[in-house]
Structures are given as C-alpha cells and as structure tokens.
Automatic annotation (TrEMBL):
Protein's name according to its UniProt entry: Phage terminase large subunit N-terminal domain-containing protein
Stored Gene3D superfamilies: P-loop containing nucleotide triphosphate hydrolases (3.40.50.300)
Coiled coil: none
Pfam families linked: Terminase_3
Ranges for domain Phage terminase large subunit N-terminal: 5-163
Amino acid sequence: MQKILSRCREYQNSMADSMHKLLSDQIDSLGLAPWFTVLENAIRAHNGSEFLFKGLARNIQSIKSTEGVDIAWVEEAQTLSQESIELLLPTIRKEGSEVWFTWNPLEEGSPIEKLRESLAQNPEAFIGQINWSDNPWLPEALNKERLRCYETDPESYDHIWEGGFRRYGQAFFSIDATLTDKAPVPLPSFCDCVYAVMDTTLKGGMGNDGTGVVYIAFDRFNHETPLFVLDWDIVEVEGSMLEDWVPVVMERLETLARDTHARHGSIGLHIEDKAAGSVIIPQLQRRGLNVHAIESRLTSMGKDQRALDVSSPVQQGRIKITEPAFEKTTIFRGQSKNHFLSQVFGFRLNDKDAARRADDLLDCFCYGIAVGLGDTMGG
C-alpha cells in the first residue's frame, strides 16, 4: 500500500536535524536497501511510499503545498508554537489521513498540552503515555542512570523518567549531573584534545551582551564522561577589539592542552557566526589562527531548542565541571561570582525575562556540547 509519511519538527535547519539519518541507517542495518531509495531530502520505498522531512516554524508554506500526506508525524512536539499547530492540522486533509504528535512533557499550558486536553474526549483520537518501563529492550546502562537519577536528583526524576511536567521556574540543567558525589572533578590528566567556544556581541557596555568563552576537553576513550569544562571567561569588549582578545584565548588553550596532556593538542576556537563573529572570523583565519564558525544549524536555533538538544548528555552525566571552572569567580558588570554556574544552572525554559538576563556562557556551554559530541548526543 502506497503511503506518504511526513516527519516534522518545529525547527529543522538541515537533514541532520531530522530522522533522515536514523531511518537511512536502519534501512541499511536491516538489509532493506534493495526496497528503498535514499535521497538527500526524502526516502522512497519501491512500492511508491515516501518519507518527507519538514521544519514547521520557517517552512509551513511548503507543508501546506504538500499534497496527499497520509501521516504527518511531528517529533519533539513540546516545542511547537500555537501558530504551527493551527496551520498544520487543516493542511493534512486527505481522506483517512492522520497526524501523530510525540513529545516529552515540559510545561503545563503549552500549545501541545492544550491540544491534548482538547482531544481527551474525542473518540477518534488516541492518547497514550510511553515510558522507560514500556521498553522491553531498555539497556542496563540506561536503567543504572535512571536509578542514579532517582537517588541523586529526586526532584527531576519524575520529569526525566516518568513523563511528569517540569515544575514552573525549575532550573533546566541539574548541576548534580555535572558533578561527581556533589563535587567538581580534577582537571583530567589526559585527553584527546581541547577546544574553546565563543559567543560574541556587536558591542559592549551596560545593557548589551558580553562576550563569553568556555574551554572544553574531549576524551574519546572516556565513554561515560567524554567532555570536561576546563575554564571559562566573560568580558565586556567592543566588537572591534575582539580580534585583539582572541590571541589571549588561543594562548589559554595551549596552556590547557599542556596541563591536560592533550594527545592532539588544541583543535582551535569555535566562534558564533553572528554579530561581531561574522566579521572577525575571516580576519582571524587570514592571520592563520585556528578558528572555525559554529554551524548555522546551531546558531539559528532559539536558546530553548539548543538547551533541549544537549539536555540528554548533560543529564546522563557525560559532561563534568572541573575544579578550576567550578571554583573560579570574576567581576562582570559589577558582580563578583561564578558567572558560568549562575548562567548555566539558572537557565529556565520559556523564561519571560530571558532578554534581560546575561546568557553568553549558557550559549557557549550548549554550543560546546554540540560541537564535541555532534551526532552522538543522544547516546
């Protein structure tokens, strides 16, 4: 039977953000390649069925113009806007067509939760909850992580493992997950490499963003904890002066590479390709400095989406904070404190006052995890 299945999510900047790769890999591993044709933006079965992959937030018109969709499957529906829901539902109008939503509950009163409530008494709607306990193939390693969370972070356990709502105003990242026995870890004695991630601004001064940098070590042989936050800094510097500050960052990277005995040394500085970054990256590269632009698929996301994308490895304890980064304090905008801990572990989803809060180090933290772990973030 021919079917057209559209796999959707609120934000999809590239195929890397979709289920395209996972489905392609499964087709290969199950020996089904003779029955499918994998294209850049679609997968076609030889019986005429087709898988399409769409982003809703910036691409809703292409969804509206797609004819004959039998099933629209919306992933990560907790991030859907009310506008996307209102535009999508009347678009899937083929006789017998279905819309599937799958999500991890976050906040009560979100657009997807309101839709679920409105469909609760509709006999044509199926609403079901699926948790870890419904998975007969739950890996033992994942179950150990569940039990660890139950013991060490009971306040978050219900949300992470049982599908409960996150309490309003609750911090998104758990600091305990980044510590060992509630304490920071020593600087690693060995690692593969070190790198830094920088969030830039157009100009400094009170009321404007600062420029943050986070230094990270990656160790591919440490499967449980491949990433370590080594150090951080945040400054108010005019965009035009960033070119002079970056060499200081590069020197710090070289020092950390020596201190951690990094096998491949420093692999460079990754800079947000926005604001002043879009100007200084080419200039720094012309000077022969090892700098790279962070992928646009990451920089174009909203902060909530970036945090959601890296939340799994953080909660699994795969990122640890070292003693130097944990103990450090600096003066920024007249406040002397650990601004890294304050920004990262003070972050909350759907924060109505987010525009008034400093979040440069939070951005660096999320970018740094995405750069280091890439496609293995959900592992």
